[in-house]
Design goal:
single chain
């Protein structure tokens, strides 16, 4: 058994080396022909990509508007709380100063929260239509012939 193992190991080693020593040109890989799309096909692909990008943009815009609504609701709640405390404290000068300070703090917090929001990305632009691409697919209509007027 050990003698058989001594014979198999060099055999496997030589087989491995001979396979790896084959030149790379032995296996011919034919490159796929360059896929050239017609302008209309390219436009349709670009339009699909535009629709995907626009959907992402709309979702980002909706998310930002939701965050702005939440910030506004928090601001209004802070103003209501300050107004309630002002009414409960009476109409003294110190309560007015406290009310002014509370509204200024609420406004500063609102402005800080809005500034910390991520900026909204620019909306994607639709691809330009190729020449000869009419409104209804590939057909482009020319001007209709004018009928001559009969008197």
């Amino acid at each position: 058994m050990p003698r058989m193992r001594h014979l198999i190991s060099p055999l496997l080693l030589s087989l491995t080396l001979s396979i790896s020593a084959l030149p790379a040109t032995a296996v011919e890989i034919t490159p796929s022909p360059a896929a050239t799309l017609s302008p209309i096909q390219q436009y349709e692909l670009d339009m699909i990509e535009f629709k995907n990008q626009f959907k992402i943009y709309q979702e980002a815009r909706a998310s930002r508007e939701q965050e702005l609504r939440e910030i506004g609701a928090t601001f209004i709640q802070a103003l209501k709380q300050a107004s309630k405390e002002f009414k409960n404290a009476g109409r003294g000068a110190s309560s007015r100063a406290n009310f002014a300070a509370a509204t200024a703090l609420a406004a500063a917090n609102r402005d800080k929260a809005v500034a910390e929001l991520e900026p909204l990305m620019n909306p994607p632009q639709p691809p330009a239509k190729p020449s000869g691409y009419g409104m209804k697919g590939n057909k482009q209509r020319g001007p209709s012939p004018k009928a001559e007027k009969k008197n």
